[in-house]
Amino acid sequence: MVKICCIGAGYVGGPTMAVIALKCPSVQVAVVDIAQKRIEAWNSDKLPIYEPGLDDVVKQCRGKNLFFSTEVEKHVDEADIVFVSVNTPTKTTGLGAGKAADLTYWESAARMIADVSKSSKIVVEKSTVPVKTAEAIEKILTHNSKGIKFQILSNPEFLAEGTAIQDLFNPDRVLIGGRETPEGQKAIKALKDVYAQWVPEDRILTTNLWSAELSKLAANAFLAQRISSVNAMSALCEATGANVIEVSYAVGKDTRIGPKFLNASVGFGGSCFQKDILNLVYICECNGLPEVAEYWKQVIKINDYQKNRFVNRVVASMFNTVAKKKIAILGFAFKKDTGDTRETPAIDVCKGLLGDKAELSIYDPQVTEDQIHKDLALSKFDWDHPLHLQPMSASSITEKQVTVVGDAYEAAKDAHGLCIMTEWDEFKTLDYKKIFDNMQKPAFIFDGRNVVNVDQLREIGFIVFSIGKPLDAWLKDMPAVA
Ligand SMILES: NC(=O)C1=CN([C@@H]2O[C@H](COP(=O)(O)OP(=O)(O)OC[C@H]3O[C@@H](n4cnc5c(N)ncnc54)[C@H](O)[C@@H]3O)[C@@H](O)[C@H]2O)C=CC1
Ligand SMILES: O=C(O)[C@H]1O[C@H](OP(=O)(O)OP(=O)(O)OC[C@H]2O[C@@H](n3ccc(=O)[nH]c3=O)[C@H](O)[C@@H]2O)[C@H](O)[C@@H](O)[C@@H]1O
């Protein structure tokens, strides 16, 4: 029986290994982590992450060929294939601070593998890492290995949160990079055999190590670039009276461009786009390619611009001040169908409004009160470390100015304005007449996700701002400078 161990029971390690266990009953899978609470949650009825379809997959395999454990060293030693899916945050201090990937957790996992292994293993990079990381990992493993042979593979993950199970069941492609030696090719085949149990052969791509590592960064950069492109257009739409929904539909009809990933928004969030592009920028700079670095940096700059622009719209529309005004925030997760708040644009928007002394009432169907307070208190990039290394409690400032409530109507009661930060389906079907009746007047809605029907809301009496749509006369009179 092939034994797999995955180091890192997070958003990638947990779902990916659960699906491997489900699709490969003859493979034994152990997912290990240093965060005891996370492992306890994986072994309980309330999994540590919300992901549609995940509960069902875990229930089918847990205790049979899928195990969650804190016995990291034991399971690593027993495994034939070790996936490493640990955090790869952006460095906050030292060389490359604010851009380069911090490989502390990766390096400590590699050193541990070398220390505890008593038999040869395939070590798989599942985390997103800078191109050439495999070379560094190889050095760590071979220098400490006491003669044991390790083959390094790069097998980046392309799942998106909210659709992780679907993406894993039916991936566009699985990418495996390895050394071009006979041993490297043998290792590639061993991993390919695992995926081939449910993924059609023509979707399993094999490349050299560096192509696989770079393809992951490139894919995320291309995806984020599309969003920044459409978001840049959204600003021009507002200035000219064009409608970004119509523009992106027309543009996406060109089969060379395609219709997906062209939704204008308050900005992209999530744990990876920003981190991976910053990392790409740093790699370009280190390779003497400042023009290429500058090109990709612009994707991040437009994203920051879009979030600032949104805050400025809110403040400018409400007579240039939101001090002591109640603002309802609907949605805090970085996208719908996840409870994940890492780099959610809601954090920047809330911080911007808090900076202008607003009082916020926040509702999200999947994010806990504690998480929201923590997110608003954390410094940039601090969130991307194992849970036990993150600051424990929220600052008192956010607790005074922020309340977290249990539904959208409560959030909006007596509010001056309402901001939609996440495209949760339930926000499309709220009783906006009831909300309007209970709000201060004039009542404002700022839709950061283009989910509401602008005409209907204007008929009710709201002043509405919706990203990239023709502006209300009110907003034209109150211009916002980003
Ligand atoms: N979240 C996503 O949708 C995707 C993430 N990725 C990449 O996958 C990697 C992991 O991301 P997530 O799963 O989101 O992170 P996560 O933070 O949810 O999970 C990482 C886990 O690794 C554990 N860990 C850290 N160091 C450890 C060590 N030495 N030994 C044992 N456990 C250790 C942490 O406690 C944590 O539970 C990152 O490189 C990310 O860029 C790639 C594709 C999608
Ligand atoms: O490396 C990763 O972590 C993953 O990053 C993204 O997945 P994810 O961040 O989970 O979610 P996306 O669906 O890509 O959304 C990212 C952000 O972009 C926003 N977005 C997305 C699409 C769009 O048209 N407009 C838009 O604003 C979303 O609301 C969200 O805030 C990629 O889609 C995955 O392929 C990749 O594996």
Q: What is the CA-CA span between the terminal residues?
A: 59 Å
Rg, rounded, reads 24 Å
What name does CATH use for the topology of the largest domain? Rossmann fold
**Unique ligands:** 1,4-dihydronicotinamide adenine dinucleotide, uridine-5'-diphosphate-glucuronic acid
Number of strands: 14
Strand order in the largest sheet: 3-2-1-4-5-6
What does the overall shape look like? elongated
The main β sheet shows up as:
6 strands, parallel
Classify the beta-strand content into a percent band.
5-15%
Oligomer: single chain
Roughly what percent helix? 40-55%
Task: Output the number of helix runs.
Answer: 19
Count of all domains: 2
CATH class of the largest domain: Alpha Beta
CATH architecture of the largest domain: 3-Layer(aba) Sandwich
Structural class: alpha/beta
The unreliable regions are none
| Mean of all residue-level pLDDT scores | 94
CATH superfamily of the largest domain: NAD(P)-binding Rossmann-like Domain
